[in-house]
Each structure stands twice: as structure tokens, then as C-alpha cells.
Amino acid sequence: MSNRPHERYSNGRKPSWCSGCSYFTVLSALTECFDERDIAPEGVNVISGIGCSSRLPLFLNCLGMHTLHGRPLPAAIGARLARPDIPVVVATGDGDLLSIGAAHFVHAARKNFDITVICFDNRMYAMTKNQASPTSPVGYKGSLTPYGKLSAPLNIAELAIGSGASMVCRACAYDKAHTKKMIGAALDHRGFSLVEVIAPCRTFNGQQREILERMDDLQDRGHEVDNRESAMREAARVYDSDNNPKAVIPIGVIWKSGGMICFDDQVGRVLDENTRKHSSVDEILDDLKPGRGW
Amino acid sequence: MDTDGGKSDAFTLRVIFRGEAGDGILNAGDMLMRSAAALGFSAAVHKSFPPTIRGGACSALVTVSGEELSAPVSSAADFVFLLDKSTLFVHGDGGTYRGADGCANTGSSVNANNGDNANGRIGGIKSFALNFGLCPHINIHPQLKSSFALGVASQILGVPERLILNLITEKLRKKNLTEENEDAFRKGHESAAESIIPAIGASHKHAGRLSPPMPMPGNRVVLDGNTAVALGAISAGCRIYASYPITPATPIGERMAQYLHSFGGFAYQAEDEISAIGVTAGAWYSGVPAMTATSGPGLSLMQEFLGYCSMTETPAVVVDVQRAGPSTGMPTMHSQDDLMAAAFGGHGEDQRIVLAAASIEECFYLTIEAFDMAQRFRCPVILLSDSALGNLRATCRRPDPALGLDGMPKIAAESAFDIAGCGDEPPQPPHPAGPDDARPRRITGLEHDEHCMPSNSAENRVRQQYRRFSKMDKIELDYSHMQTIDADGVTLRTPRSEFAKKFNIGNGDEDNDAGPPADLCVVSWGLSSAMTRFAVAALRKRGLKIACLYPRLLFPFISGHYLKLLEFCPRIAVVESNYTGQLASMIRMYTGINTIPVKKYCGDPFTPEEIEAELYNIIQMENFILDISEHEAGGDGEVPHE
């Protein structure tokens, strides 16, 4: 552990986020988690897509791939398959993960790859200057929907649980200590873990620190994390406050399955079972000599 | 093209099985081909099938030779087994039945009555109806017709029954269909002895052709194009394979899933092609060579990631087993219409390398080259194959991973990373080797500086763009062995150039090598070039002088090789399976040379006979035009102009 975790993981470049952006909290929570676990900068791979949140690996001196819009998970899977010894963290946003990258999200969660996904949910596209995203509230006036968004928001946690993710957490970027706790728990989990971080865009939607008062920590009221029914129920409530200003937002570990085998471990099993069926290409070619049948 | 000399081992035998998908056509072709191979002959099976599991015309052309394998795709045939008459003319046969000795019609539409032995003519050739009456099972299972036909073929050709019965047992054991098929096979065998052999005569040139067996060459294997790609990849160190199911590339994935795990690698089925190339890029970033294989629609989806690999200088190997597009097109049929998409399909201006394989062996060696080049140049390499080549199965020389293309020594692995940086610039891409590696650890698709920091500066942009493109210049210097120039018996129009010396062209007389021009230059790529080689050999036998260029490295485009063809003859024909003449267009784009297109785009590959006829016509026509213009120019002393 270092006294200055931020410096240990920084590449010296000042983040290009707006001053006062809630994302700074998440970045610093993440590096503190790395530091507490003594993960060396070259010992973790931070992979992202495109968007404000996806700039994150460019501020770190960790291994990292700043990939294409919506595509961090395919690259993350490639990295996991190639180097099972290096943990992978995906930094992504609600547009990146749930709109253009939705197919990859569903399948990475279903396959339960050992990847930690941090979804910065600002409920809009900020980098392209204010368009409605899948998680924007009904009626959201983005530049491409000046008449107001016509469809209901997509619920990240519900989608993750439904897809088969083995751990789903929710935090609010205004509460750094809790965000750090959630990211840490996700890093420690073996399997696909999602941390949904509610992180409003200050530039386009203003500071919304008052939402902190509506946060309802599930761990404070004995929520059973391995009970799928209640997990789905708590997951569903995230956007209730769009319609009811008094509605609470459940945060904390929403879902954690004990019994799901992650894809990475199964790869190991397949390799163990198949080792030395053929020891060389020459041996395969021997089997392909004429008269050897099919 | 193929002559039957007095020597019995210089023959070419071609047998076609044709019927509906589901009739067991492809299995029958495979079994006959494998039997011939097991008997020591050179053999190939070329398959054509519809994108359906049941129904639609399906055919398998089996070619057997005593010596070097003759063209595995051909307009000629010796025997045709027609299991369903409705499929006779469905797909372009290119005169498939020309020269056939017999068309054994086992289709119920003609042969409705059991015991109907009336012989007739089908498609202009003599036909012999087969007696299904011997085989009551066939009335129950029409799918047994192919085993029956196989029995007939083995009787005519003298293939030992045991060989094919073993293959039937092995193939159909799991489906529990062995007994019926063995019975149908035996009945076919008996039926042929009774009706066909007497009809074609025991002295027919192919009667008993495969008996006795030939001595088996020690270095021979049976491979198909897709398996050759998979083995080449494993030989090259590929340890992660990611793909999404797509015809006709899926068999590459099936082979990788079968073999790769033994080598500590993993074959991953992705949710789509975007994910497949993303996994490939992620694996290469992490230091593990990886590959994906797809066909046209998948290549379209991968384009954005290919640009990402170029920009981040991450290697990637993509195999495109082409099929007839656009859109879903004809998913099982042959085409060479992805060249432009492979070379120019990305947005912005990226660096990529496009290779094309012409044969099963090239599928193996070029896959290895693709991995080497991807690592050397740190950019995506796209290897083009096609549905006919991928499914073509034949006996071939056992590939040797220690050797390169054409037996050339491989470029030393030590030099692999030397040229990534150009000139005095340090090698740039990150991909750190370990904790002590000081290089930047992250990559980005944004324009970036040497430290992989995003940069929008004009100065940096110019420097990086220039550096990335400059590194590709090395290709022209180091990879001329990827192109084959075949100018056998052709003299040069000009004194012997450095180029001519490099490719051993001309008679070696430095100063006095010039002679009359060749009749024609021919350029062809991919499977078409393999067929062009046979056509050119035939034309040369007819006394014509032809110079050929068979490029295997198609992009970056090396203008010099094409321009130098003008040393032989100003007329260049380009043979390729597409409508727009994609290589011809690239030749014009980069060299300004207008070529003569020879195109086929019906979904079947070119046959050597078709190419021979087309090239012959071109030569006749061009000579005719030359005669006229000379006559007119000489007539009134003026060249007429319009």
C-alpha cells in the first residue's frame, strides 16, 4: 500500500473530465482499491470503450485498452483468455455498455467471465454533448430528441441479473466510501461482477447531491444477496424516483450468487481434459495420411 | 488438357455425384476420394452444395490421377451419378457432362419402375438406368441412393469393397445407419456387374482403373482448405481462436476446437463477429497470437476493429472464406468478391495486408505467413480463401511448418519486431513484455504520440501517419517471393532487366535477350489462379506464348510486379470470379494499365477449360485487331482518328 495511491497508478496526465465531475471519485476509489490489494499497475488491465467514462484507462499507468464504442467486453474477454493471471476491469458508461454494446454485455454476463465492469451511469451521452441514452428518464430532452425521450429507461442491474451476472452492485459516486466498498467487493468476486455507479453529469444536468439523501443501503436492512427474487425487486427500483420524488434508491450489493462457475475456470477444465491428445502438428498430420479414415 | 498416354499412371478420372442436399452426395464423393487416396492415387473432391440441409442441387466432383493431381475443378467428367434428375441443370455445370462416358441415373423420376433397365440419353450423353429393384431398402430410404451409387462406382473402377464399407461404418455408426447403407452399397456393386459393366464394356478405359493400387508416397496427406488453415495457424503459434458460426468458414473453427486445446490454446465461440475480432485483438494485446475466421458478412462487421488494430498497431489475423455476396447472397457458393472490402473496407486510412491462397497447401503456408506479417508489421492481415477452396479436399504434399511458401526459408523470427518502427523513430507500439518493460502500457484508437497519449497536434498527426504508412514500404522489398511470375518459354521485349534476372526470366544473355512479344500476359489470384495454371499449360501445348503473374500478396498493391508484365506483352488478361473485376480495377488504379477482364460470377469456380477458351479467344481477337490496324495504317499511310 502506498500513501498516495493516486500517484502510484497515475501516468501523470490530468484527467480530461470537467472540473467537479463525479467521475473523479470513481477513479480515485478504483485506484485506492488497487492499492489496498497491492495490485501492481502492470498487474491489472483496465479496458474501456468510448465516452467520458471510457477515458479512464488513459489517465492510468496500468495495462489498458481504450477500445471502440461499445466494444470493451470483447477485448476484455480476449485478454482474460490470453492472460488468466491478469485481472480485468472494464470502465464503461450507460451508452457504451447498454446501447451500442448491449449484446456483448448480455453475453459476457451470461458466460460469467471473471471481469469487473464499472458502469458510470450518468443517464445520457455527455461526450457528444447531451443526447438521451438507454437509461435516460422518459421525456429527457436530448439534442436528438428535443421532443423528449419517448421510451422507458433500461435498468442495468435487472438486465445484468437476468443475463446471468454472478454479482451486481450499485453505488452513488457522491458517496466515495461506499463506491469504493462496492468496487472492492466486485474486484474480490470471482465471476462477472457489475458495479452500477450513479454519477450524474454536472455539465449538462447540474450537481444533484440531494439524491444522496434518497440512497437506501441494502446491507443496512438485511437484504439477502443470494435471493434472486428480492434481488430483482431491489434492482427494479432504481428509477422509481423519476416518477415519485420520495422514492428511495436501493444501493449496495444487490445480487451475489454463490454457485455459479465462471467461464475462466471452465476453460481451465477443458484444457486439462484435452492436454496432449496431440502433442504436435506433425502428429495431427500423421492422422491425416491417406487410408486413415475420416 | 489431360492426355491418356500409354502409361497407366498418367490418367485422369473424373466422377460426379449429383442430387439433392440430404441425398448423401458429399459423403459419397468424400468416400470415393478417400478410397482412391488410400489406394495410393492422387485424388480430390470438389463440393458444391446449397445453403439448405435438405433439398437443392448438390454435387461432388471426384478427380483421380496416377501422377500429379489434375485440375480438381473441371468441365469434363467420365461418369456422372445422377441421384435426382431435377438437379441436372440447376447449377451452372460449365458443361459438366461433356465427354462423360455414362450417366448412371438413379433418380426415381426417370427410373420409376423397379427393374427398369431401359437405357437412354440424359444431357446428351448415354445413360444407364440402375436397377433399384435389387435393393428394397431404397424404397424406404431414398437417402440410401448414394451408397447404392457408390457401390456401382466401386464395381466399375475396381475399388475393393472393404475400403468403402469401412468408411461407411466409421461415418454412419453414430447415426445407426450402417446396415442399410452397407446393404445398398453391396446391391449397387452387384447391379453394376450385371448391367453397367456389360453396357460400357470391360475394355472401357476406366474399367478397373483403381486396381491394382499404386505405391503410396510417404509424404502425402489428405487435407481440405479449411483444415489446412487451422493447422497453419496452430503451427504459427495461434493459441486463441475466436469465431462466430458462418458458412463456409465454420469448419476452420471446428478444426480449431478439435485440435487447439491440446496445445494449451482455446477456441472461443463469440456472440457475433464484432466480438470475435475484439477477442482476437484483446488476445494479441496480451501477447498471445490469435485468429478469427469468417466470410463476407462477418468481414463487414469486423471492419471497425480492423481499423482499431491498424491505429493501435496491434496484430490480428482474419481469414475470410469468401462466398458470393452482397448481403446473405449465395452463402455456400464460390466467389472472389471480397478483395475490395478486405483492402479498402475500413474508414479513414489504415494499414492492412491482404493475402490470397490458391491451393490447399497455400492455405497452410499463407496462414503462417499471415501470423509472421501481422507481428512484423503490427497490423491486421486478412487471408482470403473461398467456399470452393475451403471445402476442396485432396491429397497433397505433407505441409512442413519449418518451411515457408514454395519451400522458401521463412523470414527469421528474430527480425519480427525490427521494422515496426521506421527509420530513426523508436519502435512504438506498447504491448509490454513484463513489469520491467518501460514502454507505455495502454493503447488507444485515438491518434496518439510515442507514449500512447492521445494527441490532436498537427505535427504529431503528420509524423505518426507517415510512420505507420512508411513501415508498410518494407513489404515490397521483403515479400516479392509471395508473387509467382511464370514466363516459361517467353522471351522479353526489352533487354534483360534486374526484375527479369530476379525472377530468372529470359535465356540469361544479359544484353541480347529481347525477342518477339508474348501472345498474352495473364494475371489471376486465389482459386482462379490455380485453374489458370492448368489453362495456360494447355495453351502452351498449343504453341501460344503466355506470361503469367499469380499474386498471393494482393495488398498493399505492389505496382512494380504488374508494370513489369509489360516487358512481355502489353495485353494483360485478369482472371477472377467476380462481376466488377476487382483486381483488374486495382491494377488500373495503381498502374493505369487497362486490362482485359475474364470474369465468372455464377457461384461456381472457373474450370481450366473455360479459362483456356476465353484466353484463346482473347488472343485471336487481339491478333485480328492488330492485323486490321496494321493493314489500315499501311494502306493510306495515316492512322484514322475519330
Structural commentary:
- The complex is a heterodimer of chains A (294) and B (642).
- By secondary structure, chain A is an alpha/beta fold.
- Chain A has a single domain (5-262), classed as Thiamin diphosphate (ThDP)-binding fold, Pyr/PP domains (Rossmann fold), CATH 3.40.50.970.
- Helix content of chain A is 34%, strand content 15%.
- Chain A is built from eleven helices and eight strands.
- In chain A, β7, α9 (228-236) and β8 (249-256) form a beta-alpha-beta unit.
- In chain A, α4 (94-100) packs across α5 (102-111), α5 packs across α6 (156-163) and α6 (156-163) runs antiparallel to α9 (228-236).
- Chain B is an alpha/beta fold and 642 residues long.
- Chain B folds into four domains: 8-200, 3-Layer(aba) Sandwich (Pyruvate-ferredoxin Oxidoreductase, domain 3), CATH 3.40.920; 221-416, Thiamin diphosphate (ThDP)-binding fold, Pyr/PP domains (Rossmann fold); 419-478, no CATH class; 482-616, Rossmann fold (3-Layer(aba) Sandwich).
- Chain B is built from 19 helices and 22 strands.
- In chain B, β9 (240-243), α7 (250-259) and β10 form a beta-alpha-beta unit.
- The longest helix of chain B is centred in the C-terminal third of the chain and has 29 residues, at 608-636.
- Chain B is globular, with a radius of gyration of 27 Å.
- Chain B starts with 11 loop residues before the first strand and ends in a 6-residue tail after the last helix.
- Classes of the chains: A alpha/beta (294), B alpha/beta (642).
- Chains A and B meet through β1, β2, α3, α5 and α10 of A and α1, α4, β8, α6 and α8 of B.
